[in-house]
Every structure is written in structure tokens, then in C-alpha cells.
Amino acid sequence: MKADKSDILTCLRNSEDYVSGQQLCDRLGVSRTAVWKVINQLKEEGYQIESVPSRGYRLVESPADAYSESEIVSRLHTKWAGQRLVFFESTGSTNPDAKGFAEEGAPHGTTVVADRQTAGRGRRGRSWESPAGKSIYFTIVIRPSFAPDKASMITLVMALSVAEAIHEVTGLHTGIKWPNDIVVNGKKVVGILTEMSMTPEMNEIQFLVAGVGVNVNQEGAEAFPEELRKTATSLKMESGQSIDRAKLLARILERFEEDYDVFAQALTLSALKERYETRLVGRNAVVRVLDPAGEYTGISRGVTDTGELIVERETGETVLVYAGEVSVRGLYGYV
Ligand code: ATP
């Protein structure tokens, strides 16, 4: 049997000490030769693996910013999120890929990751700038048992998970611009696009896909097209440090698994709302709601248990803003 690269890397990474060739064979049910071949492949890819006769193998270091299926999987500690993971060097957009796998029966948590997208997408047919080697683009398949009217909350759950994972890994303060963008120092670093597929009878969710784009290691404003320079930034530009994409992605998937399970128990955001609201940008400040039916301003007061933005209009009336067709801005700029 062929030895799986991700399994071997996972064993090496999770072991404090040397792992003997025999232990790897026993754990993975493969031959010594198969193990040896994979170790050599990993070395060729730049992994520093020490081999000591009679003790075994030890992972000394991964190549800088290693970003591949095995690198991501070997860092994951999840039950379902990303347990099946498909990695593309380049693809059009990970959302349609994930939908395709879901149509073919891919299980809950299946995740498509790409190093580059040639047709990255945002909401309402907008595009998402997706250069190679710099960012995280992934889409996770969700197979919920809840009703379609609950689906829009998934975007908020994902926003919370990503915002907290970024904070944990980089130390940066992350804000959430309702419902689906994450900002650092007033500029956008993350976009999230959730899409739903219904059963043929149109009364149940067949699956959801939640796609996430994170600007990670872009080095300066020039890395973005002219029209995005005022509103877009990257984690490296804000923190001054290169960020390990595989580590951050693994942390995002772990956080999302926890937060999703909490949400799926209650089917409201009640247990997550407080954390979401502490990151909500523009809270208790004046916001502009860009509603296609007519733009208006008001004071943002937070979100409801079901994820609508609460806005107090000048007329004194309190309105609940539903995600979907609407964008929200600060009074004078993007946030
Ligand atoms: P908004 O950001 O206007 O509130 P939105 O939430 O609907 O709207 P998304 O669908 O999340 O926006 O993202 C698409 C928009 O994000 C694009 O129209 C563009 O302005 C901007 N954008 C595209 N690529 C990037 C990127 N890599 N980083 C930051 N912003 C980007």
C-alpha cells in the first residue's frame, strides 16, 4: 500500500521524540520501503527530517511557508472540518469546486483550498483579487439539518471564527464589518461568501458552502490593484511579519468547527453574539446602509440573535437589516 504523505507528516509533527520507521509502518499499515519513499519525497520538498539509525525520524523544520495538502492536514486537530481536504495550486474559484464535490456526495467539512484563484468571487457577482503564493482561499462544505432561513447566520459564525483565529495567530486586532468582512486598522483583510444549494423540492438545504479569502503575505499597497489600495490590506502589512498560511488555516478550521457546533446546537447566535459584537466595527456609531431600495443612515446598535444588524434611524425607528443585498459603511469611508 502507498504511504500517505499527510499521515507521515502528521505522525512526525505530533511526536516530541524520534519516530521509528517500524512505528510509522505499524501505525499506518504500510511497508518500510513505502515509509522511506515518502520521507525522501518530503526531504525533496524542503522538509528537514533528521534520520538517526536505531532511533528513527524527527521533523526538524518545515520549508518556509509550506502550503500543501499534507502541510495543512498535518497541522489540523479537528473532527470534521478539513478532514477531507483537496488542495489546488490554481483554480477558478474554490466555491464552485466545493459545490461540485458536494453534489457528488462529499461529506460535511470537506474543504477545498487553493494557492491561487483565477476567478475569485465576492457577493453580488463581485470579484475577489486572488494572487498566488500570498493568501488563503478556501471553501468548506456544510451539510446542515436546519431550515434554509437559518443559513445566513453561517456567514457570521465564519466571520467570528476567522477574526478570532487571525487575532490568535498574529496578535492583530480584528474587527468585523457586518456581516461578512474582517478589517484590520480600518481596511479589509478577509471576505466571506456563503452560498446555499436547495433540494429539488426547494424546501430543505442540500448543502451550504462557505468560502473565505484572507490577504496574508502581500507586502505593500502595490500588491493590490489601484482601485483596492484605499480599502484593502494584508496581515503582513499590518503586523510587519510573514504569517504561516498553513498554521493560520488550520487554526481557522479548528475555530470554525467549535463555533459551528455551538451554533448548530442552538440554531441562533445567542452563545456567540457577545464575542461577535465585541469585534463589530461601527457599533454605537453612525453607519450608512447601502440598501438597493434606498440608502439611509442610523446608529448601529449590534446584532440580533439571528444575525440582523440593529440600526436606530434618525426618525427614532429601529430597523433590522438583513444581510444579502446590503452593504454597510462608516459615515465617511469604508468602516
Ligand atoms: P463591501 O466590502 O463593499 O461591504 P461586500 O461585503 O459585498 O461589500 P465582498 O463580496 O465580500 O464585498 O467582496 C468583494 C469586494 O471586495 C470587491 O468588490 C472589492 O471591492 C473588494 N476586494 C476584492 N478583492 C479584495 C481583496 N483581495 N482584498 C480586499 N478587498 C477586496
Task: Give an account of the 3D structure.
This protein is α+β, with helices and mostly antiparallel strands. The protein contains 9 helices and 14 strands. The strands form 3 sheets. It has a 7-stranded mixed β-sheet with strand order 3-4-5-9-8-7-6, sandwiched between helices. A 5-stranded antiparallel β-sheet has the order 13-12-11-10-14, with no helix packed on it. Helix 6 packs antiparallel against helix 8. The chain is globular. The model has no long low-confidence stretch (mean pLDDT 94). Bound molecules: adenosine-5'-triphosphate (ATP).
Q: How large is the share of residues in beta strands?
A: 15-25%
Oligomer: single chain
| Average pLDDT taken over every residue | 94
Rough outline: globular
Largest sheet: 7 strands, mixed
Bound ligands, each once: adenosine-5'-triphosphate
Written as H for each helix and E for each strand, in order along the chain, the element string is HHHEEHEHEEHEEEEHHHEEEEE
Q: Helical content, roughly? A: 25-40%
Number of helices: 9
Q: In angstroms, what separates the terminal alpha carbons?
A: 54 Å
> How many beta strands in the DSSP annotation?
14
Side-by-side strand order of the widest sheet:
3-4-5-9-8-7-6
Gyration radius, rounded: 22 Å
Low-confidence stretches: none
> Helix/strand-derived class?
alpha+beta
